[in-house]
């Protein structure tokens, strides 16, 4: 069984952290992953930076630009991660846009993920239909779980289709927005969280976009299996040295 | 060979809709409805009426006598420069604003590079009384001040794109992010034959009035509908798509696509996507685009802001790959010279984009009896500053 699936079976609410690989410095990737695990984080999304991140707000755009300037590429990332499984046990997911993966070669990318011990991928601009028709077999061959997004505007029929194609968790985008643009959840968000919870989907849901602190983490995980923090963590990294990571994590729960 | 979009949204291997899930409901709604809406008699009537009375169509097909004499062939200019707002862009924005109204949208967003599409969008929003937000790269705002002022006078809000290289590519990113943030009431009027399916096809259909008119106009003047060549400049490729559309499946009509070579195709400062681009994904479609070996999108360069785009519409990528169209690359210098030549031989000041298409006559010989129709996509008023600096006028 894949590490993601194992983790989802644990009887706890999961805290997942996103960071941009190669930020703030090119070679911080491994240290950040190790420190996040030590601080009690359950799962990590490693952001593969892209020049044109359509679904991201200014914070992640800036970290992506900096990472690219620092020299981050798919190849560099895989080299950094080659021994990661000697020290890190929690699930690791690569989150990135489709074009860099396409240029690397989808199969070559998946193969490399398996070699270094990546458990899953989140590719926001690879639609579920295209994945289902063209890439599902490849991902499965290399033991990778692909994670799809749903939003408050996603129809029930499409949610059910996404649920049927998924075999890990569903990434629930908290509201209609790019990353890092929310502050706090209102009744509308809560109603949506509840609506999805009541659908009793086969895959658990993890909520992302708009989780920034202990309060929003608690609100989100009241209805979902876990929550993902991205922009707030990147912002923390831009303001603090990376040896203070545990301080951020303990402030969440 | 089919050169139109297939039922899955592809032109050969190019096209599709590679969009984040947040955009799916909007794009899917458009995909399901656009052909039906465009086929409605009411829609057609309103669209055609506005093209006639507001845009000023049909645009003339003008036999350029002195230019033809110089190059010893028969050159016709399709005068899109005479449209209201000064370019072909308005054909598409009229179509899309009517589409947006029928979809019940109340807020319009657009991206713009040089500002032509922004002005055309602001114009139709004023016409229909809809809120208009135009994203424009911070650098373009600085170098295209008159168009920024036009958009403001027309009631649009111009928002600077501060990300990335702060030009057209980034303005497009910002418009897409706005659409993610406003998924219910907003329609995104894309200005070129790019973006996720059905945009390339929808924009092409709205622009196809160009080739539809060429057919009957040429029949009137030359007794035949088909020229030997149709020629257009290509950035994203909307004027080209409209100019080619009704000739795509006419094998006796040869198609020439003219890209901006900038300082030279291999100079590192170019926008010749068909030569420098590789298959990849930009702004929601699979097409040819300029990128690093690691898949990061790179910055193109051209003296012409309208051709300064790192990708090309998926239809054109397919025309390049299948060889249906011949692609030529024209440098800044060649285009500027051809632009000045048109001024002096025909009394027409062309947009620098269109000047690229005119520059092919120095590079390529046509037979005296051959008919070459060139799309004069826009007028040069917006480019006066560039012309002044270049020619030290």
Structure description:
The complex is a heterodimer of chains A (253) and B (393). Chain A is of the alpha/beta class. Chain A has a domain at 14-147 and 212-252: TIM Barrel (Alpha-Beta Barrel), CATH 3.20.20.70. Chain A has 12 helices and 9 strands. In chain A, strand 1, helix 2 (29-38) and strand 2 form a beta-alpha-beta unit. Chain A is globular, with a radius of gyration of 17 Å. Chain A starts with a helix and ends with a helix. In chain A, 53% of the residues are buried. With 393 residues, chain B is an alpha/beta fold. Chain B folds into 2 domains: 11-50 and 89-203, Rossmann fold, CATH 3.40.50; 57-87 and 207-391, Rossmann fold. Chain B is built from 16 helices and 14 strands. Chain B has helices spanning 24-39, 41-55, 65-71, 89-102, 116-128, 138-143, 145-153, 168-181, 199-207, 209-222, 238-244, 273-276, 314-322, 332-346, 352-358, 384-391, and strands spanning 10-11, 14-15, 61-63, 74-79, 107-112, 131-137, 157-161, 186-189, 229-233, 254-262, 278-282, 285-289, 325-331, 371-376. In chain B, the strands form 4 sheets. A 6-stranded mixed beta sheet of chain B has the order 3-4-14-9-10-13, with helices on both faces. In chain B, strands 7-6-5-8 form a 4-stranded parallel beta sheet, sandwiched between helices. Chain B has a two-stranded antiparallel sheet with strand order 1-2. In chain B, helix 4 (89-102) crosses helix 9 (199-207) and helix 14 (332-346) crosses helix 15. The longest helix of chain B has 16 residues, at 24-39. Chains A and B meet through helix 3, helix 5 and strand 6 of A and helix 8 and strand 11 of B.
């Amino acid at each position: 069984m894949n590490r993601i699936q194992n983790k989802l079976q644990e009887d706890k609410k999961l805290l997942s952290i996103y960071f941009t690989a190669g930020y703030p410095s090119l070679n911080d990737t491994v240290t950040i992953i190790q420190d996040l695990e030590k601080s009690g984080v359950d799962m990590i999304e490693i952001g593969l930076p892209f020049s044109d991140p359509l679904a991201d707000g200014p914070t992640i755009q800036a970290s992506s630009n900096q990472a690219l300037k620092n020299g981050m590429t798919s190849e560099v990332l895989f080299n950094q991660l080659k021994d990661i499984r000697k020290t890190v046990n929690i699930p690791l997911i690569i989150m990135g846009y489709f074009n860099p993966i396409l240029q690397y070669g989808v199969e070559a990318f998946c193969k490399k993920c398996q070699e270094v011990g990546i458990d899953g991928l989140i590719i926001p601009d690879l639609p579920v239909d295209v994945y289902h028709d063209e890439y599902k077999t490849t991902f499965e061959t290399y033991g990778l779980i692909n994670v799809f997004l749903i939003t408050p505007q996603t129809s029930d029929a499409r949610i059910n289709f996404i649920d049927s194609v998924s075999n890990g968790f569903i990434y629930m985008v908290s509201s209609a927005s790019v990353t890092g643009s929310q502050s706090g959840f209102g009744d509308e968000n809560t109603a949506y969280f509840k609506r999805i919870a009541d659908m009793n989907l086969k895959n658990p849901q993890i909520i992302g976009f708009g989780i920034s602190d202990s309060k929003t983490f608690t609100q989100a995980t009241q209805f979902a299996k876990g929550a993902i923090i991205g922009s707030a963590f990147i912002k923390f990294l831009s303001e603090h040295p990376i040896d203070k990571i545990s301080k951020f994590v303990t402030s969440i729960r | 060979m089919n050169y139109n979009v297939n039922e899955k949204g592809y032109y050969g291997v190019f096209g599709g809709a590679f969009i984040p899930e947040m955009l799916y409901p909007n794009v899917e709604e458009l995909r399901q409805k656009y052909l039906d809406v465009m086929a409605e008699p009411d829609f057609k009537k309103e669209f055609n009426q506005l093209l006639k009375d507001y845009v000023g169509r049909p645009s003339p097909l003008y036999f350029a006598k002195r230019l033809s004499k110089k190059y010893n062939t028969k050159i016709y200019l399709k005068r899109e420069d005479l449209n209201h707002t000064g370019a072909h862009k308005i054909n598409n924005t009229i179509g899309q604003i009517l589409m947006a109204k029928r979809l019940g949208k109340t807020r319009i967003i657009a991206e713009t590079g040089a500002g032509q599409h922004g002005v055309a969008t602001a114009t139709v929003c004023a016409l229909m009384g809809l809120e208009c937000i135009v994203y424009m790269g911070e650098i373009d705002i600085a170098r295209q001040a008159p168009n920024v002022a036009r958009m403001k006078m027309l009631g649009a809000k111009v928002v600077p794109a501060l990300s990335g290289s702060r030009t057209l590519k980034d303005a497009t990113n910002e418009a897409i992010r706005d659409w993610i943030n406003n998924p219910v009431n907003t329609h995104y009027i894309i200005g070129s034959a790019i973006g996720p399916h059905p945009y390339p096809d929808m924009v092409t259909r709205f622009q196809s009035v160009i080739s539809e008119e060429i057919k009957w106009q040429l029949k009137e003047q030359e007794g035949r509908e088909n020229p030997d060549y149709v020629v257009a400049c290509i950035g994203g490729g909307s004027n080209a798509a409209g100019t080619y559309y009704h000739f795509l499946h006419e094998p006796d009509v040869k198609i020439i696509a003219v890209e901006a070579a900038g300082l030279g195709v291999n100079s590192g400062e170019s926008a010749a996507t068909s030569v420098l681009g590789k298959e990849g994904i930009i702004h929601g479609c699979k097409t040819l685009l300029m990128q690093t070996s690691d898949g990061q999108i790179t910055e193109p360069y051209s003296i012409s802001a309208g051709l300064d785009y790192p990708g090309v519409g998926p239809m054109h990528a397919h025309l390049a790959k299948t060889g249906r169209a011949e692609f030529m690359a024209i440098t800044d210098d060649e285009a500027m010279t051809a632009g000045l030549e048109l001024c002096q031989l025909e009394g027409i000041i062309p947009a620098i984009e269109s000047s690229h298409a005119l520059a092919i006559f120095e590079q390529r010989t046509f037979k005296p009896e051959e008919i070459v129709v060139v799309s004069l996509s826009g007028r040069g008023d917006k480019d006066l500053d560039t012309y002044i600096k270049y020619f030290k006028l």
